[in-house]
């Protein structure tokens, strides 16, 4: 292979790999595979978060009335659990105050407020802001009558909701700036969690006079685009979809309720690969095949320069 051939070949390889890895990044997916789950013996299981290892946590009802953890294929009760990061560190409320459980050790936290979540970098999210490197940063939507904080990613981007003018809106806090996250046409919105790709999950209220589908529906937001997220088609004014957590692979967890029929389901929703991703992969493989054929001289003039 000549130097020119070698450079072109590896350039093609680099482009293809770049396309494949870029396309593998999560985006608002149109379809999901849903897996239902329930804590063994519990009357109610409600998942509140998921990490990149697909560890789940949340709360369980009778007869337990406490927190639960699903890790390494096993369920366990974990009173006071608030979050679990990708390192396996667990943020929880102990009898003596907020703490982190890791490697069989409990480390108390001295933070100015109620704990909400934390990230892989040690930033602890509170009900009024976050603590990073021992410094407290306030998060309060400007001009709001109240602000509720729900989630944080490794970029210290915070999501939650705020009230203003009698209406509730979702929001994103990023680098000191606030952005309202409202599903188009909704009468209220909540943002619950965000991942490192900028995907935000939450829910919104829709009525027949606005979006058209009654009840509280879930949504996914990314880069200014909104998509409805509806787990099991519980469509009624008393129904509610609650996507509470999303990891960096776009896997969502939460619960859905249907009041009139007494139905409840907790779920893990895994995105189905988009056709565009598969198409890009096919193009990439064809490009590699062409480069190999060119290098080996298959189907080309046998007098070409080597």
Q: Please outline the major beta sheet.
A: 4 strands, antiparallel
Shape: globular
Number of domains: 2
- Would you count the extended β strands for me? 24
Beta-strand level of the residues, as a percent range?
over 45%
Based on CA atoms alone, the radius of gyration comes out at 23 Å
Describe, in plain words, how this protein is organized in 3D.
This protein has 2 domains: 1-27 and 274-306; 29-78 and 140-273, no CATH class. 14% of the residues lie in helices and 45% in strands. The chain contains 2 helices and 24 strands. The strands form 6 sheets. A 4-stranded antiparallel beta sheet has the order 1-24-23-22, with no helix packed on it. Strand 3 (56-60) and strand 4 (66-71) form a beta hairpin. Helix 1 runs antiparallel to helix 2 (275-296). The longest helix has 22 residues, at 3-24. 34% of the residues are buried. Residues 3-27, 275-281, 283-296 and 298-306 have low confidence and may be disordered.
